[in-house]
Amino acid sequence: MLVSITLQTFGLLCLSLAMDKHFKSAFQMPLTKQLKFLLKFLGWFVTGLSVCCLFLFVQPVSIAIVQWMGFLSANILLVSLIHCRLALKTK
Amino acid sequence: MNPDFRKSMIWLHTYSGLVLGWLLFTIFLTGSLSYFNPEISQWMKPELVKVTSAQNLTNQSLEKLHKLAVDADSWRIILPNERTQHWSLQWNYGRERHNLSLGANYDQVITPRDTEGGNFFRIFHHSLQLRGYGGRYIVGVAAMVMLVIVFSGIFTHRRLFREFFTLRLGKLLKTLTDFHALAGLVTIPFCIMICSSGIMIYAIMYIPFSADHFSGGQRELSRALSPGLIEIDKNAPSQIPLRDFGVVQREIENHWQGNNQIRRITFEKPFSQDGRIVVDRIKNLTISKQPERLVFSSYDGKPLQGYVEASNATRVRRVFFGLHEAHFADIRLRWLLFLLGLLSSTLIATGLIIWLKKRLIKIEKPQLGYFLVERLNIAVIGGLPLAIVAFFLSNRLLPKLLEDRATLEVQVFFLTWLVCLFLSLFRPAKKAWVELLLASALGCYLLPIIDLYQDSERLKDAILEVNSVYLTFALFILFMGFVFMKSACWLRAKDTAYEYSNNGTKKRC
Amino acid sequence: MQRKAEVFFRTVAAIIGGYFVSAIFSMAFVPILVWLQWCDQNEAVMIATMLSYIIYFAVIIISFSRQSTLLLWRDIVLTLCIGCGTYSAMGNI
User: Fold this and answer.
1) Residues of A with CB below 8 A from B329's CB?
2) Which of B50, B303, C42, C62 has a CA-to-CA distance to B209 between 20 and 30 Å?
């Protein structure tokens, strides 16, 4: 489960960085088309991996799915806070 | 209404949030506490001992029941688990109920103090203590309105979603707005899940017309969709129920894998030949509200035909119910849900405060409406935490053998809240906020101290046994005390003067 | 004054109109489900009732976002009539 959630965090981070505004505030560089595609692909792929991890666990899939959704909220918060830190650092 | 969709949504978000904000704050806060219902009950009954280490619980229970509950109409054995640590027996003769709580050692009987425990929060959360007076309808309305608020909120704060997240800590209003947007974004899935599952729990009760017309009533519908067991033959000859549960236990182990799978054993009409045993499985293995059940005969332990599989629609509703109560959640997920619930409560609270502040900046002189909103904000947002802390304090301070103790504790809760209302009406706004926060902080700090004073052994035993419930509760309450104190100090230092645009600098603090 | 009246009528449409529309939906959808043979009557009652809350939510949102209050009320009354009609026509199946 921990693996799934860590993958989810990483995936969300990639997806959020794939957005122009967030990338710019985080790294102060413009987002090139290739980098954007790469980040989006990586983000969705890793998130997909984390969903696949759910099926490898002992507990019933239904409970695992609910756990995943629950931690999604926590990860959205975490990613937002990471963005805050990144922006404050590069200011 | 308004020229475009977004503006109408803003209007809807603002006013529906205002009308039901205080009620929603209350429901969300008490609901979040309900996630830890058994743990809070355990803390509030310090007489309970750790019983999960005891052996042979069912046979010991049967022995006791054979001695004490001869010819009873029903027996019930509630086995303890890590969360409740409560092993109890119940039996009744018609309407006359008896119960007994047992300890880990042989023949040890414990008498936990009479208290509602964490269950008070759960009941308050879904019925507002108005059980027979339509409390559940009010809560249902609140749930539906919350869905509308969340939906319209997405459009109201849409700009902030796309924008980069800052927490501007300079001005109070900006901080609150940023926090409100961030908390809102994070809790969207949680709030939608909670509100829709909450409505589905009483779905048939809120719009009963279909059930009344087609199925002849709500109860008849439930009975038709999830039929119970066949009626017990009243004229069956009497028979003494079994004494050794081992026969049944072996059968159960064939069906249910794992240890300690039994939550509760109910004997229906144990002293009849037709009597039966219904064994309930533990709740954390399924998302549905209804765990599995097995049925056996009460005198020879032979398996009987079980419950008929419920209809699909009923199972969907039970999944909704189960999602809402989250019995399936392990400790990590449970804490996450609890924190999301607290975050939602602060979301609602900040929304109410933002509403007020935005308007107070613009107006020229004080108005009754804004005065009321301001006072209600203080009374509800500041007062409810204090009332909860007072509830816990009363649990420790009221004498153990007092008559009707449970009701008294609840009355203390409501009285404290009422006092907070008066405080908020008669004190200047900022002072009232700071005082309520400081009082809550004081109450939180006092709790572990009073606990230690009453029985110094408790803490020592808790540390030695690693009683995680007791220790976590104490630590969390201290942490909350710290949070309240810090908020009070921060608020006191902040310049929250409301300047009236015409009259120069008329301060209200 | 006109604004207040508009808000009042939209609120009534949302709360009371919405409740009646979802109630009539919960009753009218049952014979449709039974006729389509998707499930038996009791289960249809449960399904229709649970789905009617989505209708209620939609009516509330529409009540406050529709441009014209008059058209809103016309549509609510029309929906109620259609619902009653469906129910009377198919209710005894």
Assistant:
1) 66-67
2) C62
Contact assignment for B333 to A21 by CB distance below 8 Å? no
B-chain residues near A83 (CB < 8 A): 164-165
B213/C42 CB distance under 8 A: no
Number of domains in chain C: 1
Give the pLDDT score at B2. 67
Query: B90-94, B99-103, B131-135: which has the minimum mean pLDDT?
Result: B131-135
pLDDT tens per residue, range B110-160: 888 888 888 999 999 999 988 777 889 999 999 999 999 999 988 877 766
Report yes or no on chains A and B touching (3+ CB pairs under 8 A): yes
3-state secondary structure B38-106: HHHHHHHCCCCCCCCCCCCHHHHHHHHHHHHCCCCCEEEEECCCCCCCCEEEEEEECCEEEEEEECCCC
Task: Say if A and C touch: at least 3 Cβ pairs within 8 Å.
Answer: no
Task: For B326-355, write each residue's pLDDT tens digit.
Answer: 998 888 889 999 999 999 999 999 999 999
Domain boundaries, chain B: 1-46+113-220+312-362, 49-103+227-309, 365-496
For A41-68, the DSSP string reads HHHHHHHHHHHHHHTTSSS-HHHHHHHH
Q: What is the ipTM metric for this complex?
A: 0.92
- pTM > 0.80: yes
